[in-house]
Amino acid sequence: MRELRLDFEQSVVEFTEAVLKKKGQSISRVQESEVIEDHNKAVQSILIVEDDQGLSQLISRRLQRAGFGISTVGMGAEALEKVRVDPEVLLLLDFQLPDMTGEQVIEKLADSKTRVPFIVMTGRGDERTAVQMMKLGARDYLVKDANFLDVLPQVVGRVADQLRTERRLAETEAKLEESQRSLSVLMSNLPGMAYRCQDDEYRTLTFASDGCTELTGFTSIELVNKKGGPFFQLVHEDDRKRVLAEIRESLENKIPFQTIYRIRSASGEVRWVWEKGAGVISSRGGSRSVEGFITDITDRKLAEEALAAERERLDAIIASMSDGLFMLDDECRVVNINPALETMLGLRTEDVMHVAVMGTDTDPRLTILATLALARDSDEIEVLLGGTQRRVLKVYASRVSDSLGNHLGEVRVVHDITREKELQQLKDDFVANVSHELRSPLHSIRGFVGLLKDGSVTDSETQREFLGIVEDQSRHLNELVDDLLDTFALESGRKVLKKEPVSMEEVVGNVVVKLGTVAADKGISFSTEVHALSTIVQGDEQALRQVITNLVANAIKFSPQQSNIVVRVKESGNKLLTQVIDNGVGIPEESINKLFQKFYQVDSSATRSAGGTGLGLHISRQIVEGHGGDIWVESELGRGSIFSFTVPLADAAVCQETTGHTRR
Amino acid sequence: MSEKILIADDDPSATRFAQFVLEQKGYQVVTASNGLEGLSKVEEEKPDLVILDIMLPGMDGFQICRRLRAAESTARLPILMLSAKARESDRESGLKVGADEYLTKPASPADLADAVQKLLAKNDDA
Fold first, then answer.
1. Of B13, B21, B56, which is closest to A469 when you measure between CB atoms?
2. Reported pTM
């Protein structure tokens, strides 16, 4: 029975095909082959829901030939089950099924929220049902008439194309949505705003990412497409012109721009921002716009400024140091040199900067740097500057390392101790001189006392001579001690000079009288000249007498027999000038500057023979300078010397004091 | 005949002291108070021994010593340096420039006389 039926169906198919061929549907064949080709790429699977097995088979074969994937069921329930498993199918749905209508199948699918595309197949003359099914969402309908199998592949093919297009569209949309979503997520996570703006003087925004709110305090809605450029108005007024000019130039040269400027946020806060952008011509052509990105760099800028300030402070410290300083990198190139060292060594920074100081023995300035670079910490180095000037430099050496302990270079701080050394030398010399000067008379006293004591001096004349020497030496020792104490007292400030009115004329007179007998022994005469209305000075009478005594005693010492010494007192501005003029041996030029130093003696034998401690002129200078005056000497060898000193006149001193008070 | 000794020293009391001590020992003494005078007295007096102070005005003891050693007539003249400079380096400098002996001031009469006597004796032997 079943086989019979199959035979029948087979024959119907063959018959129908024969009929179709006879009708010469060559066009449909062509269309069919096109469909096949198309579907090779993405095979649409089709679920045939048809209870008439024979027809189902015919449809199946027809569509298989057209390249579709085919499965078949005969019942509505089976169809629902299949769709549940594979919802991507296209239903070819017979309206009249044994267990339910096509309409019921669609309703059940709708209930399970499954939307499956379907084509409905109805019996001949049942167009009303077809229309109803179209309303339920059928993609198309097929009437089971004589043309049915002929039309079938076309209809199914068209729907399949439609589905494929829809699917592609959906995919594209999904992709677009995804990419937009990720772009916007990306942008919203960026620390700044992306923008697009018109290339006009207001930089009118056409797009701003959400980041603009955090950056400016305004939402993109408040900024985008607003007239008058609220966005560009945010730029700090001092920066606007520059920013526009920079952008303009880059756009003209068709290169991207980068710029840093300040903006005022909605809250009025000034923030530093960094912008990078470029001109773009939109794909639709026409006007140029600018796209770019702006981010807040206030923190970085503040850190930079703090760093710069710190750097400036360090530079200022190094520059204001009185000690010299230079730094070498790990290849011994000069990377830093301060003004003090430039002055100290007579270098110019530009001559030595970035020059390696080692192995260059041609340039003497670099040789000095190399010497200093090789010095160990606390070394004292003697250098000859400019070939003549001897300086003693103390070097403080240190290695410079970063926080990881990497060697960055060497720093040398150079302290010029020439003056200290000289002072030390003076001090040493002074001590040596003092001990020598004190010992000589002591040795002499001891020697002669020894001779007298051991009885080797027998005649009374020699005894008297030796006692005289002892007496002289004792007196000399006494003078020395007095002078030394004076010097120390004046130097340390322990001896305070009085400020009283003193008549210089009287002081000079006293001294001339006192030393008159000594001078007379050598046949020396005095003349005193006074060219002043008043010789009253402001000072310490005893100290001033000491000065004049020293100068006059010196003049007597170095004057030849039977000569004249002039003591002249005259006004010189608001000071009184006192001069002691002799016709003595004079002073060699090289000694003039050293004359007022401690223990300096042009000719020690002259001093010895004439007495004197070598401290008189030094003490005189201390006293005169203590009065606010000056002391100096002019001399010509063999012709004589003029010692001069000034002391403020009493009136002038009073005047000065008074004006000093009124100024306050 | 007694030997002649030249004392070149700018300190009159030191000169007088040495002179007295040496005269007591029977030497003949001549004196000079500076370097140049010392050199010319060597020429004039032809002393048998010179006592030199270092810190002399004009020309110091070292310079005089060198000059004396450089001249043929005085190359072997006994020279005794007598100075207040007491450092070992001063002594070395003195001997280096040609002094035969170096005494530090103050020298006792006995030391001075001994040194002079030894130098003169040594010169006689040679």
1. B13
2. 0.52
